[in-house]
Amino acid sequence: MQEQLPSSFREDVALLSSVPAYQSVTGTPIFVLHHVTVSSENLLFLSPLISLVVLGILWKLSPGRLRGSHPSGRANTRGISGLAPSDEENAAYVLVSAKGDLCQGFGSAGTFQSRGDTARSRSKYAVWVAATIFLTAMLFSHASLLALTGYLPGVLSLGNLENVRRQSSSASAAGPLDVFQVYQPVTFDPASNNACNQEILLMEHQFAASYGHPFVGNYEPPQCDFDTTRINLTVTSKGRQFDRLALMFLGDVEVFRTSTAEPTTNGIVWTYIKEMSQYNTLWKQPQKLIFDLGNLIDNTYTGPFNVTLTASFTHQNNVKTADVILPISSRKSSSNSSSAFTVPSDNTTVAYSIPGNVSRAIVSISACGQSTEEFWWSNVFSSNTADFTQTAGELNGYSPFREVQLLIDGILAGVVWPFPVIFTGGVAPGFWRPIVGIDAFDLREPEIDVTPFIPLLTDGKSHTFEIKVLGLDTSANGTAALSNTVGSYWVVTGKVFLYFGDTVIHGKGRPQISAPEPQFFITRNLVQNAQSGANESLSYSVRAERNLTVRSSSFLWSQTLSYSNFGLLTQQGISQRNNQSTVGTVSATSIGSGRGSIESYTTFSYPLDCNSTYGITDETTSIDATISRGLDIDSNGGPGISTYTLTSGPSTLHTKQYGEAHYFSTSGGSSSSGETTDIFNGDDGYQRYVKAVNGTVVSDTPAGQESSARLLKSPGSGQFCLGRNSVRSILGRGPSTPFV
C-alpha cells in the first residue's frame, strides 16, 4: 500500500509547479531551487521517504547476498517501485516532475523479497534498513547539513520548500514590487546627539490628474539647532502609468529632481533617502514647498502616485554650507506653480545684485531632455532627419551632442556636457524592473565655480544669469558648429550658492576668459539600395573637444572636456546603435603671491553603448535592446556639499549597468523580459553588486564577493503593463501609433 503524504508536503509540491523548470535529468523537466537555510522542523516528516530513496541507491550498490534474486539468478531491478532499470540509478535525482507530481513509488517499499535467503541475510538486511532510516533522519533533521543537497547535480534542495511556501503566500497576497536605485546609502545616527533630533512630515499626497496642479504646502523649521538635513521620499503606485518627472522646490529654488518607475497591476513601491544639508540656509526659514509631479488618469492610464515625504533634522557637526542660495528659475512660487524653465521656448535670464562680502560663488545646473530631446544622445544631424520616414518616421535632429551653457552678463562662464539619464520607460522597460537606471531617482547637478566673477558681481550693480542648451548644426561642406537652439524640450533650472567670508576678493571688473569655440569632427555616410534607391543605412559620428579657463586676480577655474558618439542606423532605421563617451576634468585654484593651490579637482566620465531593434507587423510589436553604461566621478571636494558628487569632501563613485531586454505584444496581450546587472563602488569602501532577471533580484552582494546562487521570486510583481504605448515614446524613433 502506498504511503499517504502529509498535506503540507502536497501543498509544497503544488507550489513548486509555479517555479520555472531549470534542468532535465532523463528528458523530464526538473525543478531546481538552490539552497536557502530554513528551520528543519518541516523536514522531519520527509525522513522516511528520503530514507527509501537512499535505501534504493544502497540496495543497488550493496553486495549481491543482501539483494533479492529472481529465479533466473538476476538481481531484482525493481527495488524502487515504478522505476525502470535505466531510471533506478537516477532515483535520488528524479524528485519532482514538471507537473509537480511525485514520481511513482516514492512512498512504497517495493518488492524486496528474496527467495532462498537465509535468516542471517534477512537479519543483516533488517539492520541495513534500520541504520539507513536512522542516519537519513538524523541527516535531514539538521538544517546546517541541508546545504549538502543544494549542490548535488539536479537535486531539489528541500530546504526551499518552506521558502517557496512563504514566497507563494506573499505573491498570493499581491504585495507590491520593491524597485530601487543602486546608490551610496545616506545614513546617520540621530541617537548619537541630543542637540536636535526631529522628523517632520512634509507631504502626504496622491498625484492623479495633477498636470498643472502641484502639491503646495507650508514648511516651518524645527525648533532646534540643526546642521544636517535628510529627506525620505516613499512612493507607491498600482495600475498602468507612464514614468513621470518630478521636481521639488523650496520657494523658487529647485532642491530635488526625480522620476517615477512604471507600476504593475499588483503595485510597486520605492524609497529614496537624500542628503539635503546643502540647502540648510533654506531649511532654516519658513518656506513654501512645491512638489510638481504631473500625472494623468483616464481609462487607459489608471495608476496614481501616492507620495510621502519626510525630513529629518539632526546636529552632526556637519560642514559649512552656503549662506545664500539664489534661484535661476522662472520664480513662479507666488502663483503656486513650478518654477522650471522649458528650453528653448522660455527666456531663462534672471538678474541679481550680489552682496560684497561673498568669498566663494558656485552655480549648479539641473537640466534633462524630454519629448524629442529625451534621447538626445541618439539623435542624428538635422540634415538626416528625413532619411527613413517610411519606416522609422521623422528622426530627431541637432546631432547627438548637447552643451548646456551658463552665461553671466552674456559672458560664457562655464559649460555642462550632460549625463545621458535614461528613465524607467526608456529604451526597453524590461531593463528597469526592479533596478532603475543610474540617477533616475536623483538627477545630479553639475557645478560651475563662478568665484572668478566675484569682483564683477560685487560691484553693486545688477548682473544677469542665463542658461542655454545647444546642439550642432552642420554645413554642406561637412563642418559643424554649435546651434542656436535644440528640439523640444529641456527642463532647466539653476542655483547660485554664495558663501560669505572674511577673505576679501581683490580686483575689479570682468575676469580673463579663454573659451575658444569647441572643435568638432563629424562624419556621415548614407547607403542606398542599388536597385530601388531607398535609403538602407546611416552611419554618423561626432567628436568634440573643449577647453575653458576663467581667471581673476585671486582665483582660477578651468574645464577640459572631450566627447565622442558613433551612431549607426540599419534596416532602414529599424535598428540603431550609439556608442558615446564623455570625459572631463574640472579644477579650481586659489592664486596667491606665490604658487597657486588647487582647492578642488574633479574628474568624470560617462560611457554609453546602446543597441536597439524594433519590429512591427499587423499583429505584433517587438523591441529588443542591449545596453552598457556607466558613471565615474573622482573628486577631492570643494566647499560645502556638492550637488554633483552629493557629498562633502573627497568623493569616489564608479557605477556600471549592463544588460539586455525584450518586449513583445500582440492583440492578445504583451510580455516583457530583461536582465540587468548593476555594479557600484562608492565612498568609504561601499560596494554593491546587484543582478535582476525578469523583475527578480537573483543576486545582491557586496561587489567582488561571490554570492550563493539563488532564486528569489519577487512577490506581487503583477501583470506587466507598459506605460509608454508606442515605439517612438520608448526609443525616440519609429511609429508613434499605439501598440497592437
TrEMBL record:
Supply the InterPro entries for this chain: PNGase_A, PNGaseA_N
Looking at the record's lineage, which domain of life comes first?
Answer: Eukaryota
Its transmembrane ranges are 43-61, 125-152
Q: Does the keyword RNA-binding apply?
A: no
Q: Where's the Peptide N-acetyl-beta-D-glucosaminyl asparaginase amidase A N-terminal domain?
A: 185-504
Q: Which UniProt keywords apply?
A: Membrane, Transmembrane, Transmembrane helix
User: A Pfam family this protein belongs to?
Assistant: PNGaseA
PANTHER family the record matches: PEPTIDE-N4-(N-ACETYL-BETA-GLUCOSAMINYL)ASPARAGINE AMIDASE A PROTEIN
User: What protein name is recorded for this chain?
Assistant: Peptide N-acetyl-beta-D-glucosaminyl asparaginase amidase A-domain-containing protein
Taxonomic source organism: Byssochlamys spectabilis (Paecilomyces variotii)
